[in-house]
Amino acid sequence: MSISGFTPQQLARWQRIDVIRDLLRSARNIAIVGLSADPRKASNFVGTYLKRAGYRIIPVTPKPGDILGERAFPDLASVDVPIDIVDIFRPAQDCLAVVEQAIAVNAPAVWIQLGIVSIAAAERAEAAGLAVVMDRCTKIEHGRRHGSLHWAGMDTGVLTAKKARPGRVD
User: Fold this and answer.
1) What letters, b where the CB count within 10 A reaches 16 and e where it falls short, cover 2-19?
2) Residue 29 CB coordination number (10 Å)
3) Strand residues in the chain grouped as ranges (E)
4) pTM for this structure?
5) How many other C-beta atoms can be found within 10 angstroms of the C-beta atom of residue 168?
6) Which CATH number fits domain 8-146: 3.40.50.720, 3.40.50.10860, 3.30.720.210, 2.30.29.30?
7) What is the predicted pLDDT for the residue at 146?
8) CA distance linking residue 61 with residue 55, whole number of Å
9) In this structure, what DSSP letter does residue 147 have?
10) Mean pLDDT of all residues in 109-121
């Protein structure tokens, strides 16, 4: 087993550097399933970064309204533009249903975020011909390739165990 808990064979399937590179190069529209309007949530942080990096972010959440200046959609079937990557910020048990939606809308790729592992969802997506990345972060992987890991919290050189309080900068 690797650090991520994958076998070497699974790493070779779902964390391929060439797939990650090609997806980040070719994608324009990224549907983020589970995108939160709360700026303290990881999905919002990643969405903000990706939007600033030039991607169109498509929020997919049951809550109506706008997130990051974009209209939110209740599900992938409601999205009215082509989707290049379905970026999944949902618990592992929800991933298979999201993958089924991605297949139904002909999305070419699913990206299951860092810390989320659903072998069944990854295998289903792969069997349907979708590119799959799992247990990797789109923001970190983009930053790794574009020299921006330092942006808003990565590689800042500041180490702390203090929990940040809203509205306070130490």
Assistant:
1) eebebeeebbebbbeeeb
2) 15
3) 29-33, 56-60, 66-67, 70-71, 85-88, 109-112, 131-134
4) 0.84
5) 6
6) 3.40.50.720
7) 73
8) 18
9) T
10) 95
Question: Is the alpha carbon torsion for 90, 33, 134, 55 positive or negative?
Answer: negative
Cα atoms in the Cβ-side hemisphere of radius 13 Å centred on 140: 12
Pairing mode of beta strands 29-33, 109-112 = unpaired
At 69, is the secondary structure helix, strand, or coil?
Answer: coil
Dump pLDDT digits (tens) for 11-52.
Answer: 788 999 999 999 999 999 999 999 999 999 999 999 999 999
Per residue in 47-92, pLDDT tens?
Answer: 999 999 999 999 999 998 999 999 999 999 999 999 999 999 999 9
Amino acid letter, residue 15 = Q
